[in-house]
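INTERNAL AUDIT FORM
Audit reference: QA-55
Scope: verify that the stored structure record matches its stored sequence.
Auditor: D.O.
Record contents follow.
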Amino acid sequence: MKKLLLVTIILAIATFALAYNQKSYWQQMLIADADIMTYVNTASPAHDADFTVSVTDITPNETITTATKPASQIRVCTITGPTGLAAWVYFDAQAFATTGAVPVGRQFSVTVTYLGNPDPLTNSATKIITTGTGGAQWFSTANSAAWTVPKTILGAPTGIEVETPPAVGETIVGDGTNGFAVGVVITGGGIIPHELLGGDILEDAILYTITATGTQDVVVHKPAAYVGEWYCWMLKGGVLTPAVPNPLGAAESTYTFTDVDFDAKGDAQIILNDNPTLPVEFSSFAATLTAQNFVKLTWVTETETGVSGYNVYRSTDANQASAVKINANLIDANNTSSTQTYSHIDNEVAPETTYSYWLEIVEMDGTTAFHGPTNVYVEAGQPVTPSLISTMGNAYPNPFKANSNTNIAYEVKAGETGTITIYNIIGQVVKTVPVSETTTPRTFTWNGRDSKGNVCGSGIYFYKLSTPSRNITKKMVIVN
């Protein structure tokens, strides 16, 4: 009996000697553009059965897995660590056969597989961790060592790639099998931003809107009809972002807008065109009521090239197809690179009616394009009181980002006209727009460009309302 006991003790000692000393490793896991805690929800010391883990001690090429070792030695789980409750890969060096203390600098290859994704090409991710000194080691966001595994491990598409834009009015709903993830919606059509295209001298511009969640790369394909250089913009959260460079070369078949945050700023509109020039660049097109309850159409252009003039169309059902031309003669264009303001009074309107207006750009070669609509409601029998004083509010937002807009509310006293002028920090005139008497507060929207259409750099700017009765100057800031 004593011999049997001695043999048992010797075997136990031998078995213990064939393993590293106890030392635990905790690797925090994150998932790009997703919440890892949605997928890892088993608390330590148990192992989350939606995952498998394999860890290889690289030097002796020895591997342990969740299939060959208990959860006490290797697992995926949640536990409160240095950064609070988080998802972790855990393994204990004692699970390996190598003896003694784990050498500092020893490397282990950790592979995690998500079983909810059956595709072996995408459902795994691997990281090398290097051991340090001390006892238990935590690799986390606290020491900038957290592991962000790609979203492809979940089997969900990464990024949004639109090879063939939908037709105007057509909608594509992602279902996970048609090239788009569930929750992605692509809708054809849209309105060209006023600071972009007027007349379209080559192929038609193409617009579509993307609805999605999370942060995605958006891959835009060059339309087949575009044979030369092509232009690409993304409009999101009121900010127009061009491709870099813009135009793109004829040989460039795609362009990628990276890290588009759909959660923070909503839908993204993609605008494509092959126009090498911008015949008309608008800064505003607005419909307002006059003191006589007529509708005044006002549009401001930054640049004009090869434009014969403009026609104004009106509709009562917001449908351009039913709109009728309301000006008897073409409104001549000035064709200049400086700011121009045009207006037309529509005195054939009825009370308690909403009107939609479009501006037709007629080019010298006979081609036309429409801009709009802008809408206005004509109220019934309400007296309109001219403004009693000239005043100007604070710009909003302020500061505002380059390549975006800020709004300046103002009123002009009855019988007066004036200007709103923007100056740079050294007092140079950046842009001037005319203003006239108001009956209600008006808003001047500045797109952060000078009178020649150039984007203004970051810095301090001053804006001044000048009328015969009053001068008001305020400050605003453009930031990158």
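Auditor finding: record pair retrieved intact. Residues 1-18 have pLDDT under 50 and may be disordered.
Action required: none
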